[in-house]
Structures are given as C-alpha cells and as structure tokens.
Amino acid sequence: MTDDTCIEDIGHKLNLRHLTLADYEDVKKLMDAVYPGLGGAWPKNKFRAQLKVFPDGQICIEDHGVVVAAAFSVIVDYDKFGDQHTYDEITGDAYLTTHDPLGDVLYGVDVFVSPDYRAMRLGRRLYEARKEICQNLNLKSIVAGGRIPKYKDHAKELTPQAYIEKVKRKELYDPILTFQLSNEFEVRRVLKNYLPEDQESHGYATLLEWNNLYYDPEKSPLIGATKTSARIGCVQWQMRAFSSVEELSQQIEFFIDALSDYQCDVALFPEFFNAPLMGIENHATSIAAVKALSEYSVEIVEVISKMAVTYNINVIAGSIPVIENDELFNVSYLCRRDGTIDSQYKLHVTPHEKRAWIMQGGDKLKVFDTDFGRIGILICYDVEFPELGRLLSEQGVQILFVPFWTDTKNGYLRVRCCAQARAIENECYVAIAGSVGNLPKVDGADIQYAQSAVFSPSDFAFPHDAIMAETTPNTEMTLVVDLDLDKLNKLQNEGSVRNYLDRRRDLYKVSWIED
C-alpha cells in the first residue's frame, strides 16, 4: 500500500433525498438514456409541475451529487379511476393534475435507474422509500401500472395473462415485472392500452398493488426518519483456507447476502477475518506474513463497500492490517450502504501484536453516525479499557461493536466480560463477533475460540441476564438481533439505577488528552 492510498476514498457516496428543480438536467439525461423508444425525458415544465403539486412524492438517489435514480408518485382518490384506467388518465399525463391530498392511494408514476447503476439494487431502495412514504402518510396502498417489455418476444404464442403467469412462476424473466414481484407487489389484473406507445409491451401493463398494513405511523419525515430500533447481524466466522481474495469475497458475500435478506441494518465481521490469506504463500517470518496480508486490504475494503451498497446493508468489516508510512496498524472499516467508508484504528495492541508483528496503535477514537443510530467500534483488546467506552458514552453512542479474535477461552472471557461491563456501565448495547476454527498453515493463528453475542444494560426492560442473544460456541453461524433504542433513553431517566445521570461529574471525569 502506498502512503497516498486512502481506502475511505474508494467507492460511491449515495444519498436518498427529495428531488429539486435543480436536478432537472440530471433527470433529463437519465430519462433519455432509459426511454429512447418512449420519447425520452419529460419537458421541464412537466417536471416543475410534479415538484410543485406533490414535492414529498418525488425522490431520487444521488451519487457524489449526481442523480442516478429517481421515483415519482402521486396521491389519488382511487375510486374515481377504478381498475380500468390508462397512464395518462390517472397521472394527468404526468402533470399530476389528479393529485388529491385527501386521497387513499399512492400511485407510482415512474421509477428509473441509470444503466450504469442497475447492478446496485437502487430500484429496490427507491421502492422501500415509497413504502415509507405510504406508511407515514397513512395511505391504504401503493398502486402502479407496470410495463412488461419482454412480452414482445412472446406475444405471438402467449396472451398477456399467460405471459404474466409464466413470469410469476419464474419460467420467464421480465426486467420490470420480475423486479416488482420481488418487491412484494401483487398483480391485480391486466390493463389494456395503458401506455399505447409502449410497443415492447404491446400497450399492455400489469396493475400492481402493495398493501400498507400500518395506519398509525409515528410523526416523522417521509423518508430517512430516525430509527427507534435496529436489527443487527453478527457473523461468527469459520477460519478456512482460501487460495485467493476472490474465494474470500465469495464467503463474505454469502453472509452479507443472508443478513440482507433478514433486513439487517448492519453486519459485523470479526477481527482479522481475512487472516486465511496469510496461508496463500510460505513466509519466512510472522512479520512478513502480516505485511503480505496488508497488501490485500484496499481490494477487500473496495469489495465489501460495493456489497454494502448492492445489498443495502451497513457492514463493519471486522478489522484488517494496514500499512501506512511504513507502520502496521489494525483497522476496522465501516462501509455504509450509502457508499461512504469510515475507519477506527485499534488503539491498544496486544503484547503479541507488538512483539510478533511490530504493530502500532492508533491515536483517535471516533463516533459514527449511521442510518440506524450512533455507534462506536472497539477492536478486541480495546474493550478491556473502560475509559474508551465512557468517552463514547458521553457522546451518545447507542451501540458498541466489538470485532474480536481470541485463541483460548480465557482470552475470550476477557473480551466477553468487559463487553458486558461496558453495556451495563454505559447503558448501551454491545455486540461482539469472533472467529472459530483453525489455520494450521498460518503461524500465530492456528486456533480460535469464540461465542458471539449481543449484550444489553441490566434492568427490568431487558433480558434478565442482560444477554439479548448469543451463538453456539465454536460453530460457524450468524446471530440476528432486534434492538429497541427507545429503551435506552427510558433507562437513563427511569431505570432502577441511572449510571449516566448519577455519575459524579463534580468529582471526576474521563477526557481525551489532546482535547
């Protein structure tokens, strides 16, 4: 790794937000690329009307300030139109003249994604945001007319109904209908002459619906509301031989994909989860082995950052060795699902890391704001120093993540017991994730012991043993846990004991020296 390499500059910076008039040129460019056979982009006066009539319903995803995906919608009194309608009728020719603030249905006007971003599941993210809007506005459902562009290849032998059934049974693939079905929409009927100029669909469309089961949403922004709960996933990682970064990446993707399917907000990997790559070649010394391992770090973080975006899940990439200015550090990377990357350096390196690897400790303690809460990261040995947890607590950290790597049970118990103490004394949740198995060909990494877990404060609102959940020891598996963040606020003010409020700040404090 060269001195000027910055892993945090790799990748995207995605942001979900409402559209503004200044976005028109980006939207025009997108629509011209996506709809060359349907007339391309809307004129600017139509775009202006959409924003004026219903600004909350027009959303986009930008990457480094450039719009790369967008979704448009309108509220309608659905009974006025019924199931037999055309696109122009129900959308007012996309001018949204049919918008009714007192209506009962959110109608999908359009969704499109830049061809360069279609592998990143941005359409799914826009659909989830639409559902959020629907719920927060207390609307009955989302309804939309969906094109079936691949029908042109089967129109001679299949009716639209038969084609749709084959797509539903996954015997055929349609880029729009397949996507909509995978996003929990159901086909109610076939619409004829819905969009007559759509030659690919022969003018047909599916009438799709997603029902909103919640009618008492909390008062919050339509999208990007502050979460009151978080679902976290911990990976208890099996150490196994890998012959390349590609093989390692496949195993990483397996777990990220699985936790994403469970709609986790974050996936936590263990410390030095990439250690098997030290066994690819024979090395004369432990120092040579770990330096060789650090050469893969940029590639690994780039791969994980792309997965975080693609699977719409934040990933705490355990920790990996990094060389900067000819010095070796142990670094945990937070790869957010918006494409940004942040890092926390291990502050306290163990005697073994100092002796065998000549590893250095970092000099900064960070607090990370995420879309599921305020978090901190302490790498293994760091959690055994209570000052760090206290400093993070003073800055409002709700969840503390601890990737660890221990070889014996007594080493593991040091991490576990200290993590539980940090949860109780700082009134926060603490998640720990470690690796299991063995690496016979890797010096100093031949055995592992772990039991991953999530700990809570100790009071009546939490489990009686202050353990939210834990894995089976020394078995590769995942741990998925829902955390109620509102309980932390209540605990601080109404708990049986109140560590945060009752702290004697008039007598003592913990402070960061350079502050």
TrEMBL record:
Domain annotation N-acetyltransferase: ranges: 14-214
Q: Do you know which Pfam families this protein is assigned to? A: Acetyltransf_1, CN_hydrolase
Is Hydrolase among the key words of this record? yes
What Gene Ontology molecular-function terms does this entry list?
A: acyltransferase activity, transferring groups other than amino-acyl groups; hydrolase activity
Q: Which UniProt keywords apply?
A: Hydrolase, Transferase
**Domain CN hydrolase positions:** 230-485
Gene3D superfamilies in the cross-refs: 3.40.630.30, Carbon-nitrogen hydrolase
**So what family is this one in?**
Belongs to the carbon-nitrogen hydrolase superfamily. NIT1/NIT2 family.
Q: What is this protein called?
A: Putative amidohydrolase/GNAT superfamily N-acetyltransferase
